[in-house]
Amino acid sequence: MHPDFTSPSSSSSSSADRRLNALVRHLATASMVSQTAVAFSPTSGFHGDSVFSHVVRAPEDPILGVTVAYNKDPSPVKLNLGVGAYRTEEGKPLVLNVVRKAEQMLLNDKSRVKEYLPIVGIAEFNKLSAKLIFGADSPAIRENRVTTVQCLSGTGSLRVGAEFLARHYHQKTIYIPQPTWGNHPKVFTLAGLSVKTYRYYDPTTRGMNFQGLLEDLGSAPSGSIVLLHACAHNPTGVDPTLQQWEQIRQLIRLKALLPFFDSAYQGFASGNLDEDAQSIRMFVADGGECFVAQSYAKNMGLYGERVGALSVVCRAADVASKVESQLKLVIRPMFSNPPIHGASIVATILKDSNMFNEWTIELKAMAGRIISMRKQLFDALRARGTPGDWSHIIKQIGMFTFTGLNSKQVEFMTREYHIYMTSDGRISMAGLSSKTVPHLADAIHAAVTRMS
């Protein structure tokens, strides 16, 4: 401002200037103080220890840690049977032909953009996912009693469902099978639920402890949440029969328990998508409520794309709508909205009848190869006269076999035969091939005879 110029506001302007100059002096002083203090700041990094030096190194994840150990082993005969990911007969990861075809279609579509999805994800993907798990003619879908939201594979779907329940459900206890997938207790605990177990597996028969299951769920407090593996129970590979499922359903409805299904292997267990969803559909058919977490990691081989969905079946359409509004409030501060690519692949395949049929053929081939590996391993152990009854290998279903080997035997097999698996004796049948079955059978035979 020119010094000779005066106006009615000049006095207010000069007072504003004085305030501004005072602020500048204050900031300059503060800056000098902060520069002096930086040498003593615990986070400056120039002197002293890190503020995180007290952090203890965490142990490796019990499942993913198996792969870390396997990768460090230089042996040419090493075998990784730890992580549940499908492998071909040559031991290679598989990308389904129908997935490559869908990706090419998406790539060629110039109208596609990379904008944010809605909080609940791709509407078409959600609709098709519900139809896949509940059936095309599901009355719950027809009556708009189902809300489905896209999540980050099975784990993310479980976590979103668990956080919703921790906020809005009157019971905070969830009963999970003993044993179960190692991530289940952590997911539910961190979401704010209290975790208890119910008996499921019988180590003596290497089958199901059905009586124990009925007793434990029968004594659970009314309204408790119950985690159920829809099919191909992980880690045991032991599933209830349809008759047993019906008994479980009756008990759960009688006690007003809330079923929460984890469906990680639809189509991957039997090779039939409808057959593997029967347990869930029984619970939906009675008009009751349930939660279902879905994953496309295994059945479409989309492990790294993290594609999943959470469906909540409600008694009424207006309830489903309100539940969805609250699921959005769980998702928004967690991951804001889900990724677009993997779910677009799934939607492309599910909505096209030719691609869908092609997918079911490839899915049946994967399931068939795993069933074949079970038979080959069982035959190899029988041929060697390995002590014990190994019929559970062919009775169990899905990606995993719970061998019944103990942690000392597992350690011996890793040390002497370079075979890697989880310490509870769970092996991924998908990691086996006709070439590696004899090596595994030799290792099991040696472990059983020398480390009993």
Q: Overview of this structure, please?
A:
It catalyses: L-aspartate + 2-oxoglutarate = oxaloacetate + L-glutamate. This is Aspartate aminotransferase. Homodimer. It holds the Pfam family Aminotran_1_2. The chain is an alpha/beta fold. The protein folds into two domains: 63-95 and 367-451, Aspartate Aminotransferase, domain 1; 116-351, Type I PLP-dependent aspartate aminotransferase-like (Major domain) (Aspartate Aminotransferase, domain 2, 3-Layer(aba) Sandwich). The chain is built from 16 helices and 13 strands. The protein has a seven-stranded mixed beta sheet, with helices on both faces. A two-stranded parallel ribbon has the order 1-12. Strand 3 (173-178), helix 7 (184-190) and strand 4 form a beta-alpha-beta unit. The longest helix is centred in the C-terminal third of the chain and has 32 residues, at 353-384. It is globular, with a radius of gyration of 28 Å.
At the fold tier of CATH, the topology name of the largest domain is Aspartate Aminotransferase, domain 2
Mean pLDDT: 91
Order of helices and strands: HHEHHHEHEHEEEHEHEHEEHHHHEHEEH
Assembly type: single chain
